[in-house]
């Protein structure tokens, strides 16, 4: 058995680890910030009909320009956008990868404010882009002057602002986006994967697009929209950005099935988003209950909560897993992250946390048990 490092691999990939959130089949999976509510049956039936019709033409390549989908996404976003402003790919991970392929690459750099989404440095390394991790305040916020100073110091070609930020949940003011945009000649990406969970009166970075041709707002159907399995991420920007991404995308990168499913689901956006209100309620319930139990809860504008004050995150992770609950150890000392699930899933998680907080010995025995494996 050889390992990948025995192969003639690129030197800059040696020693790297792949993205690896566990995919264990547990009853309560709250570890990758999905919308855990199933898609309503009538929506499934309508999507199936569209996918079936698309399948009949699947002997041909799909529309390379996925025009109908871009029109549907523009309608969904509003803000005066049209299809020329929209680009999409198989998840916003692929959108971000294409952005780094076009605007990053060897000899170039991308900057983000850590701790932030773990895929940014991986996407940077995959595209040969140097990754610069600027820091955040101890409460994980980013102030506009701090952000602008980091950008002026490092002169990155791409800045990625995660709003709200994963894994901390921290909202990001538009003043930060404006300050960063004014401080750089590079491309500024605002990753709004979780935007739909923000209060409805909080403005999106979409409102900043007019007149800012280097600004890109990235979105996904994987989170609030409950469509993670279909893989559809997208962006809004000046039409020139989409033209740049046409240089690096693979031809026909969005299958007929993906396009048909996404267009059909967008016809039902109200129903697809109907659970957002309840998810926000469960998020707030997690925050207040964990605070009651003595954990340090960080402010979240997303569908997950980062909490500190965990003696041994790995032991707590394992003790929860033994109870059929998956959360995420994001590598921040004494912290764990949990996604807001359905009311029932959230109750299972909170009851387990109350039990663990009352009996810390349970954590110690869980960790002892696994160290024997
Ligand atoms: N951005 C952020 C901040 C995320 O947390 C995620 C998923 N965890 C993504 C992008 C990528 O999501 P997808 O590829 O499913 O659109």
Descriptive account of the structure:
The chain has 373 residues and is α/β, with parallel strands linked by helices. The protein has two domains: 22-38 and 273-372, Aspartate Aminotransferase, domain 1; 41-267, Type I PLP-dependent aspartate aminotransferase-like (Major domain) (Aspartate Aminotransferase, domain 2, 3-Layer(aba) Sandwich), CATH 3.40.640. Helix content is 39%, strand content 14%. The strands form three sheets. It has a seven-stranded mixed β-sheet with strand order 2-8-7-6-5-3-4, with helices on both faces. Strands 9-10-12 form a three-stranded antiparallel β-sheet, covered by helices on one side. Helix 6 links the parallel strand 5 (158-162) and strand 6. It is globular. The protein binds 4'-deoxy-4'-aminopyridoxal-5'-phosphate. The site of 4'-deoxy-4'-aminopyridoxal-5'-phosphate (PMP) has 13 residues, from helix 3.
Give the SSE map.
Blueprint: E1 28-29, H1 41-56, H2 67-77, E2 86-89, H3 92-103, E3 109-114, H4 119-126, E4 130-135, H5 144-154, E5 158-162, H6 174-183, E6 187-191, E7 215-220, E8 233-236, H7 239-246, H8 256-266, H9 269-272, H10 276-292, E9 296-297, E10 304-308, H11 313-322, E11 325-326, E12 336-339, H12 343-358, H13 360-371
List its salient traits.
373 residues; alpha/beta; Aspartate Aminotransferase, domain 1; Aspartate Aminotransferase, domain 2; 2 domains; seven-stranded mixed beta sheet; three-stranded antiparallel beta sheet; 12 strands; 14% strand; globular; binds 4'-deoxy-4'-aminopyridoxal-5'-phosphate
């Amino acid at each position: 058995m050889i390992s990948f490092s025995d192969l003639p691999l690129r030197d800059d990939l040696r020693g790297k680890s792949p993205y690896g959130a566990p995919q264990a089949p547990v009853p309560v999976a709250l570890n990758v910030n999905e919308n855990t509510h199933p898609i309503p049956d009538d929506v499934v039936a309508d999507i199936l009909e569209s996918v079936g019709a698309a399948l009949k033409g699947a002997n041909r390549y799909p529309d390379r320009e996925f025009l109908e989908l871009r029109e549907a996404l523009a309608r969904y976003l509003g803000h005066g956008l049209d299809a020329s402003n929209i680009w999409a790919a198989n998840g916003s991970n692929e959108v971000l990868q294409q952005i780094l392929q076009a605007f990053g690459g060897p000899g170039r750099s991308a900057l983000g404010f850590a701790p932030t989404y773990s895929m940014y440095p991986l996407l940077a390394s995959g595209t040969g882009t140097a990754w610069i991790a600027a820091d955040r305040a101890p409460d994980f916020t980013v102030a506009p002057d701090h952000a602008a100073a980091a950008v002026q110091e490092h002169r990155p070609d791409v800045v990625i602002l995660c709003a709200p930020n994963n894994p901390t949940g921290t909202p990001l003011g538009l003043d930060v986006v404006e300050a960063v945009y004014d401080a750089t000649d590079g491309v500024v990406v605002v990753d709004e994967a979780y935007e739909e969970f923000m209060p409805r009166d909080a403005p999106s970075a979409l409102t900043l697009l007019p007149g800012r041709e280097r600004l890109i707002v990235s979105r996904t159907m994987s989170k609030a929209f409950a469509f993670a399995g279909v893989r559809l991420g997208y962006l809004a920007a000046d039409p020139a950005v989409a033209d740049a991404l046409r240089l690096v995308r693979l031809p026909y990168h969005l299958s007929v099935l993906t396009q048909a499913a996404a267009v059909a689901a967008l016809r039902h956006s109200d129903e697809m988003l109907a659970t957002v209100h309840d998810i926000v309620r469960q998020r707030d319930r997690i925050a207040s209950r964990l605070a009651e139990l003595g954990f340090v809860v960080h402010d979240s504008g997303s569908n997950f909560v980062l909490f500190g004050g965990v003696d041994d995150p790995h032991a707590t992770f394992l003790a929860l897993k033994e109870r059929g609950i998956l959360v995420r150890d994001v590598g921040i000392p004494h912290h764990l992250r949990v996604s807001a699930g359905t009311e029932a899933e959230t109750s299972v998680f909170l009851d387990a946390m109350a039990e663990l907080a009352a009996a810390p010995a349970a954590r110690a025995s869980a960790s002892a048990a696994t160290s024997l494996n």
